[in-house]
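Technical annex, item 7. During the second reporting period the consortium partners agreed on a shared format for inverse folding records so that results from different sites could be compared directly. Each record opens with the tokenized structure and is followed by the designed sequence. A conforming record, contributed by the partner at site C, is shown below for reference.
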């Protein structure tokens, strides 16, 4: 994967065993793998592999945002209990109700906002506009009294932009005033979230027999944080802190859908015929109920291909908790707690599994096509796979449908600073504005 020798000036020594690489930094061994069988082992063997907590971008900054026990960052029994309860909320069977609540929200309040922003036509940053739209979905999920969507979108943007600074600039950033402003922003956002959570906890405590509505995200998160082991209740303070972690996590994760649609239009800039075909389908397909989303077949192909070429999660890490003298791929590992790195992006761009991987080709997703196991993982797989993948696909299709029916959208990227996908972090970042010329369709 780009190395020409076994020892470079960086002091990294490496052995290459096909698609699994063993390398050392000093005396400490690491593994990078792009082997589907090894990825399966990482994803399914929870006794041997655990998530990594002490990565710099998590311990220095990320954990201050979402904590260490959220539905994303947590682990162990408490995380398993929480995930089991929340899987009901994110289940595909709940998407019908979610669609019926989301559709009028998009067609009324959000479409009104888009029309006000577009006027007779305007060049807008697609990322900025979609960030507000997807943050507003929290109102559909029972958080209507939470922060305004514009505030959430702005805060999330600032926080996500700060994470790579504290990782790559390290000491200069940690000593900067910008770092202090970000810490203050995190503290303020978590404080505002905590107030909302405490009010809802008190309400549920005073009405213990009230059934939690199917689309009440906050209610389900409070239920999911009631116990560390599914038996013994947690303290109210611990419940509140856990729910705050989870709400902050949801705010950040919503941005993944924003970036995915932006990435889609970035790829489509050089595929005008594909874009026209997708937009035509979106305009001609009426979405009366949830089942009608299945009729957006070409749009789904485009989204699947965008998820392949620009997945929101670019790479992951696990700790191999093996005893000594255990085999991992072609290597004998003689040290406990070896860190194993893998990359969804590398796997999904591997020509061994994806012919012409750099070509944006929705037609590869023909009916009956199933990628080889563990070669396509935009939502990851196994017990730590994304709970919200069905919600993400539903929201992206619905958002695209409403926009296509009411506006013409043409890329208007800055030629000197075009939007690009930055791959330096585990989560995809889009660098530079995703400017598009957006004009109302006549009669819309």
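Designed sequence (site C submission):
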């Amino acid at each position: 994967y780009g190395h020409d020798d076994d020892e470079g000036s960086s002091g990294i020594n490496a052995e290459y065993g096909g698609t699994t690489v063993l390398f050392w930094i000093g005396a400490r061994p690491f593994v990078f793998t792009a082997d589907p069988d090894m990825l399966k082992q990482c994803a399914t063997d929870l006794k041997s592999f655990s998530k990594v907590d002490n990565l710099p971008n998590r311990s220095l900054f990320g954990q201050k945002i979402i904590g260490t026990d959220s539905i994303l960052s947590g682990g162990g029994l408490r995380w398993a209990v929480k995930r089991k309860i929340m899987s009901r909320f994110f289940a595909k069977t709940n998407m019908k109700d979610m669609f019926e609540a989301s559709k009028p929200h998009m067609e009324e309040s959000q479409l009104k906002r888009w029309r006000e922003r577009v006027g007779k036509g305007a060049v807008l940053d697609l990322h900025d506009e979609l960030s507000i739209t997807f943050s507003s979905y929290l109102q559909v999920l029972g958080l209507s009294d939470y922060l305004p969507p514009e505030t959430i979108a702005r805060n999330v943007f600032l926080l996500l932009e700060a994470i790579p600074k504290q990782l790559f600039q390290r000491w200069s950033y940690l000593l900067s005033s910008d770092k202090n402003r970000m810490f203050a922003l995190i503290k303020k956002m978590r404080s505002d979230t905590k107030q909302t959570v405490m009010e809802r906890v008190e309400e549920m405590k005073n009405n213990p027999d009230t059934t939690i509505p199917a689309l009440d995200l906050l209610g389900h998160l409070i239920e999911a944080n009631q116990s560390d082991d599914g038996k013994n209740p947690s303290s109210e303070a611990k419940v509140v802190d856990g729910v705050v972690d989870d709400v902050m996590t949801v705010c950040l994760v919503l941005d993944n859908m924003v970036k995915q649609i932006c990435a889609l239009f970035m790829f489509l800039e050089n595929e005008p015929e594909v874009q026209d075909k997708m937009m035509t389908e979106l305009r001609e397909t009426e979405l009366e109920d949830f089942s009608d989303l299945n009729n957006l077949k070409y749009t789904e192909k485009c989204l699947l291909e965008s998820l392949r070429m620009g997945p929101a999660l670019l790479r992951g890490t696990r700790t191999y908790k093996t005893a000594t003298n255990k085999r991992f791929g072609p290597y004998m590992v003689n040290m406990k707690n070896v860190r194993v790195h893998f990359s969804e992006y590398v796997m999904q761009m591997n020509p061994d599994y994806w012919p012409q991987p750099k070509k944006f080709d929705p037609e590869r997703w023909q009916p009956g096509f199933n990628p080889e196991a563990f070669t396509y993982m935009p939502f990851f797989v196994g017990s730590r796979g994304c709970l919200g993948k069905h919600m993400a696909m539903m929201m992206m299709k619905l958002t695209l449908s409403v926009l296509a029916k009411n506006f013409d959208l043409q890329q208007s990227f800055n030629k000197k600073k075009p939007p690009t996908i930055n791959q330096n972090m585990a989560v995809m970042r889009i660098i530079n504005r995703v400017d598009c010329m957006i004009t109302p369709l006549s009669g819309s």
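The two ends are 50 Å apart (CA to CA). The chain has 14 helices and 13 strands. All partners now use this format for quarterly exchanges.
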